[in-house]
Amino acid sequence: MKRLALLLACALLSSAAYAEPPDGEGASGPVGEESAPKPKPKPRPKAKPKPKAVAPAPRLPEGPIPYTQLQNAPVAKTDAHTSPAVVAHMAPSVSLPPPPVIAAVPPIVTPTAPSEALPLSPSVTHDLKCETQVVGPKGLISKGQFYLEVELSDVFPEDTARFKMVMADPRHQSLLKDTACETLDCRVTISANYYDLYNARTKRGAQLRVTLDRHTGAYLARRTDGKLPLGGSTLIKEGPGEYEEGYCTLQKRPEKLF
């Protein structure tokens, strides 16, 4: 019975606690209003962006467009994805520079052989007047003139001839005076461009070569090595040595040089 009485007392106490508010006022009083949560404001809906107006892609012409129409036609603004063929048709006209003027090429002229300044005829004795100067390692030695007597060979006129120094200035130290050609006839070898007047040892043992240009008349005599000493067989080298240069022309020798 005691237990039943305790249970009833507990039930009465719990019902009384739920029936009255803790502050002695009703649930609808000011205390109830302050404790109630405030409602949150609703978010405003975002405005949707309007879609951009896309220009329609230009249509390709069915046939070729005349060039006169393209010059005055307005150029339409197209999107980046325009077909390259359409862009090529809408390109503005560009003035091209005039073509370069090509100079006329002169005709090719076949070179002809130079005329022979010293033509020698066979069976005829020719006189050559030569004006030369002798130069040594230290400079000019002498200059003057002399005459040569030249005659072509009767057997081989195109290959060989003979010559001799017949008249020379006594003050001129010509290199031919050191050869036997001043008193004897010397052999001449004829080539396409030169008369090889002399190519042998001089009376003093030096090697001397004398050439005469057939086309210009240029005369050149040059010593190519040293002298051969008496009683010896070894050449003494003396460097380039002396040389003689000048020009010869066909001219009849006078009776007297001075």
Automatic annotation (TrEMBL):
Keywords noted in UniProt: Signal
State whether keyword Signal applies.
yes
The lineage's top-level taxon is: Bacteria
Q: Which residues form the signal peptide?
A: 1-19
Q: Where is the composition biased (Basic residues)?
A: 39-51
Region annotation (Disordered) maps to 18-65
What is the name of this protein? Uncharacterized protein
